[in-house]
Fold this protein.
Amino acid sequence: MTYLLSSPRGPLGLVLTRTGGIPLQRQICDQLRAAALRGRLQPGQQLPSSRELAAALGVARNTVADALAQLAMEGFLEIRQGRRPVVMALRGLEGDGVPPEDTSSATPPASPPRPSRWASALEASDWPFRVEPSTAPLAPGMADAREFPHELWARCLRAGARRADTLAAADLNRQPLRQALLAHLLRERGVRAGAHQLFFTPSAQAALDICARLVLDRGDVAWMESPGYGGARAALRNAGATLRGVEVDAEGIAPAARHWHAPGGPPKAIFVTPSHQYPTGVLMSAARRQALLDLAARAGAAILEDDYDSEFHYDGRPVAALQGLDADGRVFYVGTFAKAMTSDIRAGYAIVPESFAAPFALAQRQAGQIVAPSLQAGLAIFIERGHFSAHIRRMNRVYRERRDCLAALLRRRLGGRLEVETPPGGMQLLATFTGGQDDVAVMRRLAAAGVSCRPLSRHYVGTPARHGLFLGFAAWREKEMAVAVDRLAAALQA
C-alpha cells in the first residue's frame, strides 16, 4: 500500500502550531484521530514512518512516536517492528468494522440527544427564583456569616480532618455526628430515633428529594401547604406526584373534605413546615399536629416534615417536632445546618422511619448524595464541644432584635401599603400588600435596586390568594435594613 507524505496543508494534512499551549504530540494525535474518524484515512492505508513524519513536520522523532503509540493503544493504528504504521478498521457497534453506511441518497444530519420531559419542564419551573440577588438585603433564609465563630469552626474542621482518617471509609453517615446531632435534636426538638435512622446529605433539598422518591409513585397524590416552599413543590413533582395545594390558616395546614375527595383520592404524602410555616411564619398548633397525624394514618400517607428555621424561636417555648409525636413510623424529618450556622456549610440531614432506613441508605449511595467525611467529623466536634448550641442561643437574641427592627421600619415607612406579620421565630417575615400591587413586578424593581425579596404569589399551588413580599432580617443589620426599606418604599411608589 502507498502512503501520503504531503498535501497542500502538510504531511497527512497535518497543521501544527507552536502557539496556544497545546503540546505538539497532542496536536498530531488529535488530527490523525479526526482524519481516521472522518474517513480521510482509510483502513489498511500505510502512514509514513515516525522518522519520515518527524522530518517532514520539523519535530522530534519521539514526539511523533509517542503520538503514534497513543493512537495504536486507542485502536486506530497497528504498529509492528520494522513496518510503517497501518490504519486499522474501526470497530462499530455490531461485529467488526464500522456501522453500516446509510444507502439512501441523502444522509440526514446528526441530531443531538432530545431532552426528557423532566428536563424540558425544568426551564418552566419557578423554583429557585432567577431574578433575586440572593446575597443582597433583604434576602430571606440567610444566616449572618459575620456573626459566625469562624475561628472556632476552623479549629473543629482541622480536628475533624484528623478524626476522619480513623473512621471506617465505608460509613457514609459517620457515627460521631449521628450521635451528637441526635442528642441535640432530642433535647431541643423532642425527636425520637435511633442513630441508624439519621442520614446526612449535601442539603435539605437533597434529603427531601430522596424522601419523596421513596414514598411516591408516578401519579400518586401529594398535598403541600399553599402558600408553601417551592423546593418541596419541585421535589414532589420530580417524584411524579400529582400536587394538591392545601390552604394555611392561623394554626397551619388546614385540610378540608374537598381535598380528601378531590380527583385522585387521599394523599400518599403530605409536606408541612410546622415549626415556622414557609412563608407565612405560622406555628402549627398542637391540636392541628395531632389531627394531621390522624388524617395521615387514615390515608396511609407519609408526612414530610421540614423543620424549617426551628432553631430560632423568640416568643415562648418552641413546640416539639411533629416527628416526636409520630407513633406509626410515617414522619420523615428533614433539617439543615445552613440556617443555624452559615449558608457555606452545605449539609442537610433526614431522620426516616425505621422501615425506610435501609431503602434510604441504598438511595443515598446510588444518588451519590454524600457529605464529605471531614465535614461530618468537624460538625460532630462543633456540636460535642457546645459551640453549636452556644451559637444558636446567641443568634436567637440577635435575630429577635433584627426581626423587631425590620417590622418597625416597615410599619413606620409603609404602614398604609403593607400589612406586616411578625413571626414567632425564623429568619424572615411576610409583608402583604393592602392594595392591588403585583408582587412579582415589585420584586423585579427591587432586584434592579439591589434589594432581595421573594414574592408571596409564587409560593401558591394554583391561584394566589394574596400578594406580598417575603423579607429576610437575620443576615442584615439595622442600617442595611433601613436603606433597603427606603428602596422598597420607592419601588412601591413607582
Notes: The two ends are 80 Å apart (CA to CA). The first strand starts at residue 77 and ends at 78.
